[in-house]
């Protein structure tokens, strides 16, 4: 594998040794073309879109933050079927897979036969450090096993009281805003409040840390996350390096504006994680909050892993990397999904009212318990699953074959030579794209109303096509297989408790009624925004109903 030290990139950034740089890149280019030509010989050749762009193929259209990835894949599936080739630059032919049987096969072999692409692992290393998002095989299993107790049902059951307490704090703040306004209603920007609630829930339950976001404080962690830009918002040089890094991950070591920004975000998160960790250690030493911290909390497990030897031990760097990763995952994904849920309740007032009636009838004014949000509120569960199906925070799963493999298909596809096949040969090094949004909203799998927001579909039996998907409740928003989202039960409990406490106290409307246009703000996670607003802002008209 090619590697370059830091001085190479410093010289490159100053324009030194340009002829040598060009020569090296030319050699790499030729080697890459040779390897890819061998890969094409071994892999099954399929139909797919064409591209005259030798450097990037169609990557600009399907990269995160491009704004058109979902629509591009949907159109390509209509044109070429559920499995097709995708030109990805430098002679590379990736594979797009929208076949449920093939996807289950790929994700069941995650971290063994299929890895996250090298460029994605480098990106997560830059942003978080070497952690659960970037390690494969035994390293991934070790970190996952060490953290699993923090996300068990027993642990999450103990978090519900804190979730309800934080919702009460947000209610007190909102009531004060409403009381100060004339007319009994007020416009509140809900996206930031959902961010605040998600971060406070994660901080108190996972790290025994009070960020104070529901009392008006703005920790540096939020500024760090908000400074992260998607590829679509990069400058020209950063965008070029990002796209080229798909084939040449080493280029991510170049000091572009974007990679510098990512390192600043990491160092900001590291400073906060250091502070949280040291406070937790001090509390354990003084026994000020020892029982709370050690009772299967994330920070307690990390401290234990750092201080012990054996299969589940972690280095200090790994501990900080896990904290950075979990801060990011727990902050962005839950808050974004909650905001989408409120938008859909505004678009579908009958759904909002039906959910409110169920909550009021079942709870009778009491706070929700673990048992109630898990099994006792079927329409709440339907709204939750439908929001995850239509507005999952992750739009695509990328993998790369670590060895040659054969994909079984649920139905035959036509090869480039015109023959029909029920299995696809995948060559070592071939890239895989799994468009999760397309799978979650496929009319072939979910029926003709697949693109409609319809919680009622979850109250009966799902179509056979949908049941063929092996993910959580037959959607791929939490992934599947070895890398199935570790914190999914935490996220679901967080989401459901928040939504229950919101709808039983308030009604929600879009600022311009159903005609309000909702766009997307492209960042680390694509967040909703009301068109015309600067940034990911979602102001909603809110009234008290309790």
From TrEMBL:
Gene3D superfamilies: Cytochrome P450 (1.10.630.10). Its cofactor is heme. The keyword Membrane applies. Heme binds at residue 485. Keywords: Heme, Iron, Membrane, Metal-binding, Monooxygenase, Oxidoreductase, Transmembrane, Transmembrane helix. It comes from the Eukaryota. Pfam families: p450 (PF00067). Its main location: membrane. It is found in: Membrane. GO terms for cellular component: membrane. GO terms for molecular function: heme binding; iron ion binding; monooxygenase activity; oxidoreductase activity, acting on paired donors, with incorporation or reduction of molecular oxygen. Pathway: Secondary metabolite biosynthesis; terpenoid biosynthesis. Belongs to the cytochrome P450 family. This is Cytochrome P450. It comes from Ephemerocybe angulata. The lineage of its organism: Eukaryota, Fungi, Dikarya, Basidiomycota, Agaricomycotina.
């Amino acid at each position: 594998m090619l590697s370059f030290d830091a001085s190479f990139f410093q010289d490159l950034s100053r324009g030194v040794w340009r002829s040598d740089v060009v020569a090296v890149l030319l050699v790499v280019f030729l080697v890459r073309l040779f390897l890819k030509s061998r890969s094409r010989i071994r892999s099954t050749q399929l139909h797919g879109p064409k591209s005259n762009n030798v450097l990037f193929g169609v990557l600009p259209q399907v990269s995160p933050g491009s704004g058109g990835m979902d629509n591009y894949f949907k159109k390509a599936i209509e044109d070429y079927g559920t499995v097709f080739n995708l030109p990805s630059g430098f002679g590379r032919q990736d594979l797009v897979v929208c076949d449920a049987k093939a996807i289950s096969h790929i994700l069941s072999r995650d971290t063994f036969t299929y890895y996250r692409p090298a460029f994605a692992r480098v990106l997560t290393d830059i942003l978080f450090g070497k952690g659960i998002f970037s390690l494969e095989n035994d390293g991934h299993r070790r970190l996952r096993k060490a953290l699993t107790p923090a996300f068990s049902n027993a642990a999450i059951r103990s978090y519900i009281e804190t979730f309800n307490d934080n919702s009460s704090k947000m209610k007190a703040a909102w009531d004060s805003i409403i009381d100060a306004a004339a007319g009994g209603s007020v416009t509140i920007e809900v996206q930031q409040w959902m961010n605040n609630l998600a971060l406070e829930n994660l901080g108190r339950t996972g790290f025994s840390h009070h960020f104070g976001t529901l009392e008006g404080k703005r920790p540096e962690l939020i500024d760090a996350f908000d400074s992260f830009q998607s590829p679509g918002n990069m400058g020209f040089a950063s965008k070029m390096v990002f796209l080229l890094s798909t084939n040449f991950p080493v280029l991510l070591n170049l000091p572009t504006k974007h990679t510098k920004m990512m390192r600043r975000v990491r160092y900001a998160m590291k400073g906060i994680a250091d502070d949280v960790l040291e406070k937790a250690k001090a509390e354990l030493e003084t026994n000020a909050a020892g029982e709370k911290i050690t009772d299967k909390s994330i920070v307690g497990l990390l401290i234990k892993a750092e201080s012990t030897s054996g299969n589940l031990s972690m280095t200090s760097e790994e501990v900080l990397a896990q904290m950075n990763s979990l801060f990011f995952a727990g902050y962005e994904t839950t808050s974004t999904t909650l905001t989408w849920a409120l938008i859909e309740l505004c678009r579908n007032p009958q759904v909002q009212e039906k959910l409110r009636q169920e909550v009021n009838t079942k709870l009778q004014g009491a706070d929700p318990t673990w048992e109630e949000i898990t099994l006792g509120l079927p329409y709440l569960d339907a709204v939750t699953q439908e929001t995850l199906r239509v507005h999952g925070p992750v739009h695509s799963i990328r993998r790369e074959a670590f060895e040659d493999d054969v994909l079984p298909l649920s139905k035959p596809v036509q090869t480039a030579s015109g023959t029909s096949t029920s299995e696809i040969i995948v060559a070592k090094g071939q890239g895989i794209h799994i468009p999760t949004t397309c799978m979650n909203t496929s009319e072939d799998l979910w029926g003709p109303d697949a693109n409609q927001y319809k919680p009622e579909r979850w109250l009966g039996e799902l179509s056979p096509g949908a049941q063929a998907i092996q993910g959580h409740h037959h959607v791929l928003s939490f992934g599947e297989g070895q890398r199935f989202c570790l914190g999914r039960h935490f996220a679901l409990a967080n989401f459901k408790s928040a939504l229950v406490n919101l709808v039983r106290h308030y009604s929600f409307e879009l600022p311009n009624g159903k005609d309000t246009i909702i766009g997307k703000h492209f960042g680390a996670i694509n967040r909703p925004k009301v068109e015309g607003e600067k940034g990911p802002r979602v102001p909603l008209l809110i009234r008290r109903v309790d």
